[in-house]
Amino acid sequence: MRVALALAALLSTVEPLALKRRGGLAKPKKKKATKAPASPSPPPPPQAPLSPEAHMAAVARAVEAAAPGIRSSLADDDFYAQEAFLDARSVAAMAHEARQLDCTLVPSQSTRYEAGQTIAYDKAGVRSTQILGGDAYETAPRLTEYVVSLTAALAVFAGRLRPLSKVRQTNKLAVCDAVGAAYPKHIDNGGGDDPRLLTAILYLDGACEGGRFRAFAAAEDTITAEVAPAPGTFVCFWADRLVHDVSAITRLDMNRWALTVWLCTDDPIVEATPEAVVEAHWPRLKDT
Question: What is the tally of structural domains in the chain?
Fold first, then answer.
């Protein structure tokens, strides 16, 4: 109970998913996605999941073990990826909770800049929700513990590079459930007063072709890194610097689940996104 109360307090700092961009918001007509064939039955719940304390400790150990590589990569390349980041038992428990939340997910939105305004649109074949803790803790305890533990552990050493809060974060649990589902080329934080600085993604479940995370060189179409969404694979990068996308899913045998955590800054002055990155995200910005 003490653990649950502590997690609820920490997750009280959750921020709404930011859609703060230049210009106003407009919403076009929704696009229909082609649903995949019925997926096979999901695996049964994992046997004897770790206790809350043991699960949180496992997350902290995973971050500590990866810390030198993450710190070096964020300092030099703005991007880090690792397979089998978290032990399989913990990932399986989190994936089971994610599937239990399926009915609560809603169409996931993204934004693009076009004709002098920011366009908000639903991503076809992608649904999402936030892990909030509090009264909802019992529906997703391992997901909640992961969000809290990862935020605290990552902020300790990544905060030496940029000012990160140990408790302030926002997050998104997302599922791709249709052939053709994709994320267009973008950056997570396009400026304004959006406090998100570091993006951390853990893939939880799924069997598909496509759906690969791809990083790009700023202001270029050159792919600099490509990662398959295997369960347990982890990627992290600066939210306001890395241009990236997710390639279209061409075959979906089991829905693709991912949990994204954005670490935020408490700095009242948010650092400006580099202009080259903004141009890569909003290619027609200067034409308006």
Answer: 1
